[in-house]
C-alpha cells in the first residue's frame, strides 16, 4: 500500500510508550510503518493481551467508525513509526485514493471481526474452553477447506494458541497436552490437528455464559 504521500501524518513512539489508553476519548487511528504495537484490555482485575500488531496493520479504527471511548490500551513494544489519521485527513485519504480507500475498508472489516472474536475468547472463564475457542476462531477464518469432515489441520504453534487465548505458553501447552491425552488433538512440528471440531464447538457452547 503506497502511502508515501502521507508522510506528513507520520508519528513516532518510543519502546514502552503508551500510544493511547483504554476508556479515553479517541479521534484518530494508526497505520503501523515499523515496529510492533501491543493491544491490552483490563478484564476483571487482569490485564489481557488482545493482539500484537506488525507493520502494515492498523489499530484504533473504532474512533473513526464509532463515537466511543478507546476499547483497549495501545503500547509500543518497539520503537514504532505510524501514520496517524483523524476524521479530517481520513476523508482526504478516502476521497483522493479510491484504491487505498477500498483496501482500508477491507482492513477495517477484518480488524473489527478479529477484535470482537478475540474478546469472545477472553471472556470465557474456563481455560480449556479458551483454547478450544481459539481453534474454532482459526477454523472460521480458514479458506477453501473440506467442511464435510470434522477433522481440521491448523498451521499454527502452541505459542500462537497461547497468545490468542491470553495465557502463558506453559499453561496453553498443559491444556493442549491434556487434549492430546484425551485423543482430541494431535501435535506436530509444523501443525496441530483437531480430530473433531464439532466436539470443540459443543464444549465451548456449554462453557459460554448466556446473556
From TrEMBL:
Task: Tell me a GO cellular component.
Answer: cytosol
Q: Which InterPro entries match?
A: cNMP-bd_CS, cNMP-bd_dom, cNMP-bd_dom_sf, Env_Response_Regulators, RmlC-like_jellyroll
Q: Which Pfam families match?
A: cNMP_binding
Q: Which molecular function GO terms apply here?
A: DNA-binding transcription factor activity
Domain Cyclic nucleotide-binding, first and last residues per copy = 11-111
The transmembrane segments are none
**Protein's UniProt name:** Transcriptional regulator, Crp/Fnr family
Amino acid at each position: 500500500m503506497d502511502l508515501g504521500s502521507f508522510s506528513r501524518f507520520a508519528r513516532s513512539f518510543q519502546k514502552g510508550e503508551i500510544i493511547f489508553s483504554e476508556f479515553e476519548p479517541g479521534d484518530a487511528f494508526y497505520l503501523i510503518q515499523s515496529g510492533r504495537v501491543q493491544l491490552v484490555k483490563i478484564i476483571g482485575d487482569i490485564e489481557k493481551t488482545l493482539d500484537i500488531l506488525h507493520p502494515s496493520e492498523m489499530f484504533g479504527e473504532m474512533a473513526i467508525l464509532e463515537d466511543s471511548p478507546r476499547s483497549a490500551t495501545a503500547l509500543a513494544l518497539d520503537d514504532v513509526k505510524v501514520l496517524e489519521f483523524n476524521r479530517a485527513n481520513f476523508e482526504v485519504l478516502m476521497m483522493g485514493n479510491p484504491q487505498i480507500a477500498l483496501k482500508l475498508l477491507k482492513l477495517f472489516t477484518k480488524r473489527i471481526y478479529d477484535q470482537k472474536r478475540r474478546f469472545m475468547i477472553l471472556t470465557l472463564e474456563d481455560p480449556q474452553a479458551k483454547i478450544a475457542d481459539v481453534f474454532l476462531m482459526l477454523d472460521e477464518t480458514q479458506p477453501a477447506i473440506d467442511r464435510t469432515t470434522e477433522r481440521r489441520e491448523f498451521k499454527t504453534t502452541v505459542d500462537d494458541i497461547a497468545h490468542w487465548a491470553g495465557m502463558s505458553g506453559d499453561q496453553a501447552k498443559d491444556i493442549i497436552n491434556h487434549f492430546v491425552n484425551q485423543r482430541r488433538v494431535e501435535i506436530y512440528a509444523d501443525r496441530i490437528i483437531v480430530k473433531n471440531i464439532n466436539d470443540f464447538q459443543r464444549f465451548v457452547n456449554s462453557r459460554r455464559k448466556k446473556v
